[in-house]
Amino acid sequence: MDRMVSGEGRAVDADAGRGDDAVARASGTEARGEGGKYVYCIIRLDKPRDFGNIGIGEGANRVYTVHHKDLSAVVSDTPIVIYDPTRENVLAHEFVNETVMREHTVIPMSFGTVFRSEEDVAELLRSTHQAFSDVLDKMQDKIEFGLKVLWDRDKVIANLERSNDEIRRLKEEITRNTQSSTYFARMQLGRLVESALEDTGNTFVSDIHETLKEVAVASRSNKPIGDRMIMNAAFLVERHREKDFDEKVRDVSRRYEELLTFKYTGPWPPYNFVNIKLKLEKAE
Questions:
Q1: What is the mean pLDDT of each run of 10 residues along the chain (284 residues)?
Q2: Whole-angstrom Cα distance, residue 235 to residue 142?
Q3: Which of 47, 153, 260, 280 has the most CB atoms around its CB within 10 Å?
């Protein structure tokens, strides 16, 4: 199993409002005459910093910082538009955050967060300074890893038929009496298999979480996607324990290599562990 590189999480809300002058996330598809600022993340930095021409939009816009006291927003210039979540745009957004997080603890902003002016970005930092500072303290030197676990349902069922006495006996009985086996017996077998599958999946997920929590600060479970996925989780890990977490994931994946497939990604900014809610006015 290779990693694709690019407790419980606590959501922290930061509310910001400026009445009629508040800046909105981009809310119109047409460009306005004046330019806006696309905001990628918030970091703790009290001096200007240029991250190069890596920003979202045509021409790889320059990415730089806007300041208030010891906080900085990482931004690039943009027309005030809605950014469609195309693969190119999302990757550009993520690439900036991944670049910044190599040197800084980041509070990632939602994709498509656009402000009207640099002054409005500075006002965001001013009005939410304490909330942002608290989140940065909690996330200091922590990174996120994603782990999706998929199973081979047929192999798991075959394993259950060998190890579960009740399932094995009922299946053998139905096989021996193909002509006379009843609809009820087959329904009973189906219910037994489904119940055993649920218990087995829960056991797998619990064991994986128990193994990884030894080297993680927190974890968050998201809804599995599709029939094969039994686990869709994010783990918050201290940066200096990245290798320890890698090894734990490898250990548990080897334990289940005949039945489960592990899709392991990161490190990422702590998307699943920070929830910044901004009260912003819609741009006219």
A1: 45 33 35 72 95 89 95 95 94 95 94 94 94 94 96 86 74 66 71 83 94 95 93 96 96 93 94 73 49
A2: 10
A3: 260
At residue 18, φ and ψ (nearest 5 deg) are -135, 30
Instruction: Give CA–CA dist 68/171, Å, rounded.
Output: 70
The neighbouring-strand residues paired with 114 are 38
d(CA 254, CA 96): 34
Pair type for strands 218-221 and 229-238: antiparallel
